[in-house]
Structures are given as C-alpha cells and as structure tokens.
C-alpha cells in the first residue's frame, strides 16, 4: 500500500494504491495527516482509482480525514471509486459526508 | 441429518495485522474451487477481512493470540467460514453488532458486522467474555458456471 501526495492550488490530492485494510490504513493515515495538517487544504481529495481492495478500515480512513479537514473548514472529496467498492461506500453512507466524483481518466 | 462438507480446510495464524492480507487470500483461494464470480470473491474477501480485523483490534487488543479460520464447502455451492479467537469476548453481542457501534476508537467505522451481514448470506456470532468469539458466515455461491444455482 502506498500513497502519492500532490498539492495543487490549495487542494491536496492523495493517490492511494493497493489494498486498504486495518494494517495498511495506519501508515496511509499518518502520511496523509502529516501533509494535510501542515498545508490545510480547502479540499482533501482521496483518489481510489488504484485501490484493489478495501474493507471498513477504508471507510474509517475517509471518515477520519473528514473530521481532520473539518478542523480548518476543509472538505473531503472521494474520487474515482472503482465499481467493486461501491457497495461498501453506499453501506457506510459516505455520500452524506463527502462528495464522490469521477475525475478524468488517468493515463495507464 | 448432518451433511458432510465436500471439502474443508483449517487455518491458524497469529493475530498480527500483517496477516490480514494473507487470511483474505487464503480464503479466496479456497473459495476459488467453486469458480465464483469476481463480485462473490470480493464479498468473501471483505467479510473475512472484517472478521479477522475484529480479532486483532478487539479480541486480542493488547496481545497477540491465535486466530483460527475454518472453511467448509458443501454440495450446491454453500461456503461456510468460521473465524474463531480465544480473546476477550463480548458481554453484549447484539450491541456490538449494531452499525456504527465501536470500541475501536476514532479511526474505526463500527461497520465490521454490518459489512459481514450484508456481504454474506448468513451471519451468526457467539461470544463469551474472557473465553473468545466465534463468527460463522455463510455464502451461497452461484459462480460463473452457475454451479450452485
């Protein structure tokens, strides 16, 4: 599991890669939070396009970042959710907290 | 009359979080003999991940114990997965199973049992404080070949 972080005009984009479970979520959280707390982005975008698997730890990750960004009035955006994760995200009611969007297809 | 499984397998491993991925992969490999669909495999992997995470986060909170997974396959495509621990157990199983209830802290969504319940066809949980917990999940696999239909 890895994350690439990119700051673009006050938006912090976290490109998540691999499998998100309880084990990997901690490292992701630490990496995202250290940059987010420092840069205080107006939008924290979590890009799931390269996530192969996630369980409710991924939901916890989204909810935790929502709480963090709220501290400075920022919002969380969930981008490019693969279809197989749709069921979990609906069950968790993520859409009530965050906007779920599809950004342009990235090149392979 | 009790039906005998056509195949069964037992897996025992320590409750280190680094074993979560391994547990999912092992159960998925066992289920693969039924030629399940991508969605079915994804449901099983997710449910197993939740059950194993519960053992790690709750049952063996400050310690490392043994997690046992028993997989059984029955005629007609029925898969039964049992995840057992000898950890702290729960006083109130019903309360623990309520969506959004968690004792796992801020980063836990409290959705583990809700996910197991909705991703599998049946879920049964027994627990005794100080003795451990046993989660039994059942899924009927139709599979790509329609074997279980």
UniProtKB/TrEMBL annotation, chain A:
Transmembrane segments: none annotated. Residues 1-108 form the STAS domain. SUPFAM superfamilies: SpoIIaa-like. InterPro entries: Anti-sigma_ant, STAS_dom, STAS_dom_sf. It comes from the Bacteria. GO terms for molecular function: anti-sigma factor antagonist activity. Belongs to the anti-sigma-factor antagonist family. This is Anti-sigma factor antagonist. It comes from Candidatus Caccousia stercoris.
Automatic annotation (TrEMBL), chain B:
This is Anti-sigma F factor. InterPro entries: Anti-sigma-factor_SerPK, Anti-sigma_F, HATPase_C_sf, HATPase_dom. It catalyses: L-threonyl-[protein] + ATP = O-phospho-L-threonyl-[protein] + ADP + H(+); L-seryl-[protein] + ATP = O-phospho-L-seryl-[protein] + ADP + H(+). The keyword Transferase applies. Belongs to the anti-sigma-factor family. Residues 39-143 form the Histidine kinase/HSP90-like ATPase domain. It comes from the Bacteria. Pfam families: HATPase_c_2 (PF13581). GO terms for biological process: asexual sporulation; negative regulation of sporulation resulting in formation of a cellular spore; sporulation resulting in formation of a cellular spore. Binds to sigma F and blocks its ability to form an RNA polymerase holoenzyme (E-sigma F). Phosphorylates SpoIIAA on a serine residue. This phosphorylation may enable SpoIIAA to act as an anti-anti-sigma factor that counteracts SpoIIAB and thus releases sigma F from inhibition. Keywords: ATP-binding, Kinase, Nucleotide-binding, Serine/threonine-protein kinase, Sporulation, Transferase. Its EC number is 2.7.11.1. GO terms for molecular function: ATP binding; protein serine/threonine kinase activity; sigma factor antagonist activity.
